[in-house]
Specification:
By secondary structure, the chain is of the alpha+beta class. Helix content is 33%, strand content 23%. It contains 9 helices and 12 strands. A 5-stranded mixed sheet has the order 2-1-5-3-4, sandwiched between helices. The protein has a 4-stranded antiparallel sheet with strand order 6-7-12-11, with helices on both faces. Helix 1 packs antiparallel against helix 6 (190-205) and helix 5 (131-149) crosses helix 6 (190-205).
């Protein structure tokens, strides 16, 4: 996969087809003052919450599954499902993308456990139904896409991330809506789409974990003070949340809003294509809807079948972004019908 993405950069950087707006640099752009400020706030709040745990209490975690059932003694408010997987099996560490607590609550792999519980792990081929893993994977792809878009353009084009809609695998594509300054009319070339695809694969290969943090409305507004869209969204999200918190996720230095849950690590992303960018007219002005399709790592599909998925993902995804309450621990329904995220 690394060789594939590297070849894309070399091939399309020297292509006869012009690449006007998307950067062809394979290097990560220098961290801006805004990004540094956001990450400093995130780090401080994360440290504060960890220190607030106080005296360490033990909890009992019962793992049900392969290679064998295990009972673990872990640290309340500190230990995560990922830590549990490390104690059990390397296979679980590599393939697990999501945890299920007490057969009831979907849980991020790097989110601290809060009480005694039974634990199982979900992966791309999870049985009896991969439905919830698929939604977490689609949601995570949107977040990764936002991270890539934020650094994908040349210096005179400033992306402002708007949001991504609730994941719906049946729609055929994951999505992120973005405002692009100085670019009112843009139809990306095939080369530009391939460069974006390669950028997303290269980003995922760096194996960034999805860091989850619940913060106050005030802190979220501070973190997103330079983003006009997210500043408008934060109060509504906090209002709908039971504990008035806003859930943030960080991959590398990119921070975004989502109720989650997300997969554990970007390296679970396998084959990926950014297939289309559609211009939208909204109440917020002109936005661009970036769309893509992806398969989890180790899920194989022949070229013809994958090309059919790509063709489907090129069609405009009609999903609408809706404010959702931030209660991300809910009773999963193991059925195939789509429900709100």
């Amino acid at each position: 996969m690394k060789r594939f993405s590297s070849c894309l950069y070399k091939k399309y950087k020297g292509s006869l087809c012009p690449i006007k707006y998307v950067s062809t640099s394979a290097d990560i752009q220098p961290k801006s003052e805004i990004i540094a400020y956001q990450n400093n706030l995130f780090d401080k709040e994360q440290k504060r919450q960890r220190e607030a745990v106080g005296r360490i209490e033990k909890i009992t975690v019962k793992y049900i599954g392969v290679p064998e059932n295990v009972t673990l003694s872990m640290n309340k408010g500190i230990s995560t499902p990922f830590h549990c997987a490390q104690h059990i099996s390397e296979m679980l560490v590599k393939r697990s993308g999501l945890a299920l607590i007490d057969d009831t609550h979907l849980w991020d792999m790097h989110r601290p456990l809060e009480s005694d519980c039974e634990l199982t792990f979900m992966h791309a081929q999870y049985l009896p139904d991969p439905y919830h893993f698929n939604r977490a994977y689609w949601r995570s792809c949107s977040l990764i896409l936002g991270a890539v878009i934020s650094k994908a353009f040349k210096a005179d084009i400033q992306p402002t991330l708007h949001s991504f809609p609730s994941p719906n695998v049946k729609s055929g594509s994951f999505v992120y809506d973005v405002e692009l300054s100085n670019l009112p009319e843009w139809a990306p070339t095939e080369n530009e789409l391939r460069i974006l695809s390669a950028s997303m694969v290269k980003f995922a290969q760096k194996s960034y974990k999805f860091d989850r943090l619940a913060v106050s409305e005030e802190l979220a507004l501070d973190i997103f003070q330079e983003n006009k869209f997210k500043k408008e969204q934060v109060p509504n999200i906090a209002q709908q949340s039971i504990d008035k918190k806003v859930i943030l996720y960080r991959i590398d230095d990119h921070i975004d809003i989502s109720k989650g849950p997300m997969i554990g690590n970007t390296n679970l992303l396998g084959r990926c294509s950014i297939t289309a960018v559609h211009r939208l007219d909204t109440k917020n002005g002109h936005l661009y809807r970036f769309q893509g399709v992806s398969l989890p790592v180790n899920i194989m599909l022949n070229h013809f079948a994958y090309s059919l998925l790509e063709q489907r993902a090129k069609k405009l995804n009609a999903a609408r972004w809706v404010d959702h309450a931030q209660n991300d621990t809910y009773v999963p329904q193991f059925a195939r019908e789509e429900t709100a995220a």
